[in-house]
Amino acid sequence: MQSKDLLQLAEQFGSPLYVYDAEKIKSQYQRLTKAFSKVEKLRINYAMKALSNVSILQLLRDLGSCLDAVSIQEVQLGLHAGYSPDQIFFTPNGVSLEEIEEVHALGVQINIDNLSILEQFGAKHPHVPVCIRINPHVMAGGNENISVGHIDSKFGISVHQLPHLVRIVENTNMNIAGIHMHTGSDILDIEVFLYAAEILFDAARNFKNLEFLDFGSGFKVPYKKDDIETDIEELGKKLSKRFNAFCEEYGKELTLIFEPGKFLVSEAGFFLAKVNVVKQTTSTVFAGIDSGFNHLIRPMFYGSSHHIENISNPRGKERFYSVVGYICETDTFASNRRIQEIAEGDILCFRNAGAYCYSMSSNYNSRYKPAEVLWINGEGHLIRAHETFEDLLRNQIALPAAVAKLQ
């Protein structure tokens, strides 16, 4: 997409605004499948927690993707978007047995990540194919909040608990169809990923009727010009060779599964916000925008970096600005960042806004959530309307007048 297209969309749909480029999602999907083209059976389960708009789910479905869901609500959204139950994996953490039973009743593949639920579910449903999430105790990821495979993580069954796990499977006569791991997000060192894969291969040898191995995802995308990223092509070359060798050793052609979220949609996303005020203090020039961490929390939550450009003045001389929001707390998107000269009313564009941005937004300060637009075939299509005051009130219930006053 070009800046002129984004400016036109901001004028048409208002700001703040999320925009997603369908062509970039398609190219990322094709890049991943091409990297693993030497694997006979490859399945991509899009991690829909990254961006769960139904139109995005439908776009990925048409590309051939399946889904990775982490809640019953995500499962229901996937079914609503046209996915069949066998195209959805349920990979929750810390949910109740009741929620797992509810998902099972829909015919969706269950992935279990703790011994207690595994034993309870196995005792009741010994013939239902189940996937087991292993914690490989491998530290990977760009921030402790997104590193999920280390020894202190709440995710998965410790690889050191394999003997206990195997006993449960044998005692319940469970049907283990696959095993799964996920080390974390923003993986740079593919050798760490390959090391964790060997742990998964070792664990797989304990189960004789597997249909698939799920290697998670967490591939890093570039956040700025010349930024480093996961070398998907090199990983594809090395892991495909090792996976095919393991399948030969195992005596069966298994399916290799990935569950990318950020990799598929992050770079496709743009967040557009209007500058409300330019404020000079004794040491800083603030550019205050018509948004805040209620719309884009990642920079405040775990220090993520989003390249920001002034698309209203793309050739302007760069100056140093701190870009801040309108939330009544510290609400900083960037500190002393070089950006083309900013004037009040300009539109700023935040790059890499496709993953974990809208999906983590809120109504904090009783602000409305923004609209979402999909740019496809050279046109912008509204795929979620900007919220209104009626949306804020939708599920609120006023007390009857008779009980509203304190005694």
TrEMBL record:
Kindly list the positions annotated as binding pyridoxal 5'-phosphate: 218, 356
Protein family (similarity comment): Belongs to the Orn/Lys/Arg decarboxylase class-II family. LysA subfamily.
MF terms (GO), sorted A to Z = diaminopimelate decarboxylase activity
Question: Which NCBIfam families does this UniProt record tie to the protein?
Answer: lysA
Q: Which residues bind substrate?
A: 298, 302, 329, 356
Q: Which residues carry this modification: N6-(pyridoxal phosphate)lysine?
A: 49
Subunit structure of this entry? Answer: Homodimer.
Orn/DAP/Arg decarboxylase 2 N-terminal domain sequence ranges: 23-266
**From what organism does this protein derive?**
Flavobacterium flavipallidum
Question: What is this protein's name?
Answer: Diaminopimelate decarboxylase
Reactions this protein catalyses: meso-2,6-diaminopimelate + H(+) = L-lysine + CO2
